[in-house]
From TrEMBL:
Fe cation binds at H128. GO terms for cellular component: cytoplasm. This is Peroxide operon regulator. The gene is perR. The keyword Ion transport does not apply. It is found in: Cytoplasm. The keyword Transcription regulation applies. Zn(2+) binds at C96, C99, C136, C139. It comes from Marinithermofilum abyssi. InterPro entries: FUR, Fur_C, WH-like_DNA-bd_sf, WH_DNA-bd_sf.
Length: 148
């Protein structure tokens, strides 16, 4: 599954004239296989052993290229670093207030919200964003352990 998505993404980049370097391929592969919404720093740290000459700037530049090509979206929540999501389907995110973990959440009926907003306001609605906040199960366990 991820391999097929990777091949499609590579073809999409090549069709827009983007040269496929080993670093670019590795960053893209990492994004497509890691469903954890990594930051640029996390991607850099995950790949630095394999590419010791690669800089954080290289990661950021490639993420910008992927974003412009429509392969990833940048998630900006609060003050923390941007996170990157290679899942381009319509979905929502549940965000842990403690550790910043982001989990995908799919709830198709919320698309009706756009239609309803357009109908009630006269706006031509083209997208919406919803964020759900809480404390993930891992952080809940830590709180229970440390307070017990």
């Amino acid at each position: 599954m991820a391999n097929n998505r990777l091949n499609k993404a590579v073809e999409q980049l090549k069709s827009t004239g983007v040269r496929m370097t080993p670093q670019r391929h590795a960053i893209l592969e990492y994004l497509l296989t890691s469903m954890g919404h990594p930051t640029a720093d996390e991607i850099y740290k995950a790949l630095e052993d394999k590419f010791p000459n690669m800089s954080v700037a290289t990661v950021y530049n490639n993420l910008r290229v992927f974003k412009e090509a429509g392969l990833v979206r940048e998630l900006t929540y609060g003050d923390s670093s941007s996170r990157f999501d290679a899942n381009m389907s319509d979905h929502y995110h549940v965000i842990c207030r403690e550790c910043g973990k982001i989990v995908d959440f799919d709830y198709p009926s919320l698309v009706d919200v756009e239609k309803e907003a357009a109908k009630k306001t006269g706006f031509r609605v083209d997208n919406h964003r919803m964020e759900i906040y809480g404390v993930c199960s891992g952080c809940q366990k830590e709180v229970t352990v440390s307070s017990g």
